[in-house]
């Protein structure tokens, strides 16, 4: 029995193109025509393959978090709390100021332009940020002894501080601040880390 009509696009290539378009322009700044042009697909083909714009955006976010935005996982593997903070900040700089990717962060860029019509998108992004805070806080609590933090440290507040700092680095990168300067900023921030390692 003959197979169906051959697919005229590579879904991975198309999704990568969508991710880069959203990363460059943000969710609100990206029109369907931008996506179809970047993906090399017609609007009906995009809808058939990926769903509506919001569905495609969520797929692009998942791709981003599994690729350029996957640095949190590396940070969580560090043996000390200071190592987590250092790896998280410096890896974020590499991600938001990469040589071959748009400057800034896809998630931060999309969260900066708020539109009541895209409340579900904003809720999705907010949920991702809060999950990040919770994950970091849980890992900070897991450290003990010399690998940990001073007893009076609030791990949730510290986790939120780290996420806030990374968001700030992303905004700076999108504004054109060079990568080496952002690494210097990260180093300066780490001098304030409780129980820091010299």
Description of the molecule:
There is one protein chain. This protein is mainly alpha-helical and 198 residues long. It has helices at residues 11-25, 32-39, 43-50, 53-66, 71-76, 81-96, 106-112, 119-142, 155-174, 179-190. Residues 1-6 have low confidence and may be disordered.
Please specify the SSE layout and strand pairing:
Layout: H1 11-25, H2 32-39, H3 43-50, H4 53-66, H5 71-76, H6 81-96, H7 106-112, H8 119-142, H9 155-174, H10 179-190
Helix pairs in contact: 1-2, 1-4, 1-7, 6-9, 6-10, 8-9
List keywords for this structure.
mainly alpha; disordered N terminus
Helix percent band: 55-70%
State the shape.
elongated
Query: How do the SSEs run, as a string of H and E?
Result: HHHHHHHHHH
What's the main sheet like?
none
Average pLDDT over all residues: 91
